[in-house]
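README: folding subset

This subset contains proteins for which both the sequence and a predicted structure token string are available. Records are stored as plain text. Below is the entry for Coenzyme A biosynthesis bifunctional protein CoaBC (400 residues), shown exactly as it appears on disk.
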Amino acid sequence: MLKGKHIILGITGSIAAYKAAYLIRGLVKRGAEVQVVITPAGKEFITPLTLATLSSHPVISEFFSNRDGTWNSHVDLGLWADAMLIAPATASTIGKMANGIADNMLVTTYLSCKAPVFVAPAMDLDMFAHPTTRRNLERLRSFGNRIIEPAEGELASHLVGKGRMEEPDRIIEVLSDFFETRKDLAGKKVLITAGPTYERLDPVRFIGNYSSGKMGFALAEVCAERGAEVTLVAGPVALGISNPAIRRIDVESAEEMYQAAREAFPGSDAAILCAAVADYRPEQVAERKIKREEKGEMTLRLVPNQDIAASLGAMKREGQILVGFALETDDGVSHAESKLRRKNLDFIVLNSLRDPGAGFRCDTNKIAILDNAGTRTSFPLKSKREVASDIVDRLVTCLR
Ligand code: CTP
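--- output ---
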């Protein structure tokens, strides 16, 4: 799967840099072409001679060569790559990537790179656990970068914990799996709704919910990677998306989401309704900020919003597949079954707020899929990306 693939391998200043030699050997053995870009600190841990010999390419570290003035174009390099892998990635480089501090060839190349980026962190356990590192990694995830989580084990400090760069064989497997991805949604158009909706009260306030949009965005990415043309109707979220096969339409309210979804659905083969849509909106939207002194005690009158899923269910054509979500706190299965019928869905994804690690804002989820033939399939706790793959597997089966 890696045969003929162009891989930029970014190496930074960590003791795990020695593993880069094994990484290059493994990638080259599988037919990939590897171009090493190393930071100045990286060169303290492994020599460019070793890396150049293993990769059969001169190692790039500086913007230009002092010797003959040769200019290393990070733009050309970014366009050449089928993937960029940064392994090991130190806390410092992760911080620079998250904040666009392009003071070396590696980060500049990262900013120019249009290909998928894989990041394998390596650092001491406390550095890895620090809120700054967590936030920066979260930020990279939100850019669509894939983080290859470090393993637990003995670290260079002799402390034991999480921070050890994942083993080269495993990293190569992640890349290989990525390129192996079946294009089983090629030629299909998928509509996805994601995130919360905000229902305006006045120019500064709204009624919303805790949805982060992570599940819907993971679904959009997986569908696009598997060959689909995706229309992603997103409520207000702090997430980015980089795949050019995803057309993103940003909306704020349930009404805007309803209009965008109804417009896209007739041309779609499937719709996955992942958004946490507000069921009600204030009957009146104040034009000016509501003032406390003028109001005293306040009663809000709410009116129902359109049920997007039910409305698409009513207009569904033969062969179109409609997938819904049910996030429940109690009696999950019976609520999910009732929504499946009521909204004319083909299957529904049930997750419970009672399961630790499932539901809003986390990076993981635990789901069960209930279909209209009455079968129920439960899955263990997984990352939202893996959960998205499981859901897309079922979608592909339905579309056949
Ligand atoms: N949904 C929708 N439009 C709405 C409400 C919900 O499209 N106005 C979709 C959600 O995206 C999800 C499914 O319907 O796929 C179930 O959402 P949920 O909020 O659980 O269902 P409700 O019918 O609103 O039921 P309740 O809030 O009473 O649990």
